[in-house]
Amino acid sequence: MNCLDIPQHEGKRYKVLKGRELHEKRAVVNKDYLRQKIDCVNKEILVYLNSDRYHIRGIVDEVLTLFDGTMAPLDYKFAEYKDYLYQTHRIQSVLYGMLIKDNYGADVNRGYVCYLRSNNLLKEIPFTKESYKEGEEIVNDILKIIRSGYYPQKSKSLAKCIDCCYKNICV
Fold this sequence. Notes:
Elements: H1 14-28, E1 40-51, E2 56-66, E3 71-77, H2 87-104, E4 110-115, E5 121-126, H3 129-148
Parallel strand pairs: 3-4
Antiparallel strand pairs: 1-2, 2-3, 4-5
């Protein structure tokens, strides 16, 4: 998208449209509800954050303040939980954690993903120094691709290609 100026057309994909619809609904339904099982004392909904330091930005579904004074991102996924946490969900949560740390100056040592198609199952993701290092490395790899115009190789896993918007033009 950034190197070849080929749009993703995300707005035409069913999962993206359904996800956006559910996010909008979540923003108004039970907006005062705080998750007591995870000791949440405050939340902000649909928070746009950016970081010049990390060169990332995003809209966090919920920024949670927890009882111990730490903060955590919560992300809703229009997906089923299949007995494992997808790497993309984990990395996205870590990147949101980096944004929260950079914007709020708070400790962020975990994140949460709520799987809507698994009866709102909530999964906790612990963040370690290694998690943040991995997040920074991924951002640096992406920046290298964008800055140099380098076109990355196709994924070795064909399962990742199924829902990719570039699968028809991938080399």
